[in-house]
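Same chain as my last thread, 434 residues:
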Amino acid sequence: MQWAQHPLAQLRHDPPLPDSRRLADPGVSHQTVTVDTQQDSGGQEDRRPLDGIRVVELTQWIAGPSAAGLLADWGADVVKVEAPSGDPQRGFLAALGVAKKLPNPSFAQDNRGKRSVVLDLNTNEGLQTFDRLLTTADVFLTNWRPNALERLRLDPASVRERHASLVIASQTGYGPVGPDRDTPGYDIGAFIARTGMARTNRPEQDDPVNLKGGIGDHMTGITTCMAVLAALMGRERTGEGQVVETSLFQTGLYAVSVDLATQMTFGRLARMRPRTELSTPLVNCYKTADDKWFYLIGVEAARHLPGVGAAIGWPDITDDERFSTAPNMMENKVELIRLLDEAFATRDLAYWAQKFEEFDVWWAPCQTMAEVAQDPQALALDSFIPVTDGDGDNLMTIAAPVIYNGSTLKPRRMVPALGEHTDEVLAELDHIAE
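reply #2:
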């Protein structure tokens, strides 16, 4: 299928239909503010789990914006406060040396659905306005380093003194205490390198793995979002806010917890081997005649080997003494992988997909990003969301990994231009003051 004919290329933008809704937090001291909701394409009111929640976001790059972006998808009114120069992620492509003005899908992914307000927090006026904004909020979410927040009295302890009912979410590279509390993180440093992930997930003789950017950021964003939602539930019962603190480093430690717990229990880990020597031949990747890759995911070797054997034309494979039991299979793993390599190299992926379905073989294609963008399962899940950015460019983003009541929630707003909503939000503050 040509891209122009693909469903993802048919960009459609539904403008928000405003409906007055009051934001009020029972039993706490915020001011009441007005937020926008919209109707869905059938004219029904678009109700979401976080309707009536306001988030003030002071973040940059990916991890912090992604957490606030999820909250926006699920109904929160997210006010993104930026410096006059803007979130540096807005200029990410230029920083890579791309001279031409292009749409920025990375920024759009984590900032759709928000309102952008420009404030200069290096001035008293900017700080005072920011504090007024916090009086209207349910959540203050930031990923600035602790020393920067303390300098402006925007650290969690100081903010809580002024806004006791606020949920304060602080996200850092390495956590709020310890010798590295103010060390810049980024996911390649705090999440991938420092946690051992870069060295564990490759054979010993290979160089450390350099994973694509944003993976640790988005995992930390999900962690932060989860912490915020739990704190909001707690506030419903007590009327009191909480401080929740997450970090790239702690999220990374949890991500590698199976290996890390094993290391701490036994003092060592099994050596990571090349794919031709893996001790689990049925949980391994193989290449087909048309240069496609796929993974077998037969985690129960004795259960899954007969199906694999039948698929490759060797139905009595388990009668072979070398592969008759799981221990024997492990002992003869190199030979089994070699035989499977030879078999799978004789036909293309479409042939093997048909055979795997016929013999109930558990597997998954090892896809390129171009293939993922046309994956029928992803399309069935409504996983791709078209948006426009502040310059009017069309681009594609990926849906939050949650379905509510059978629907993937689309953003109520598009991607904000820098400072696009400054006047609108400040007018709301003036209205409250009046």
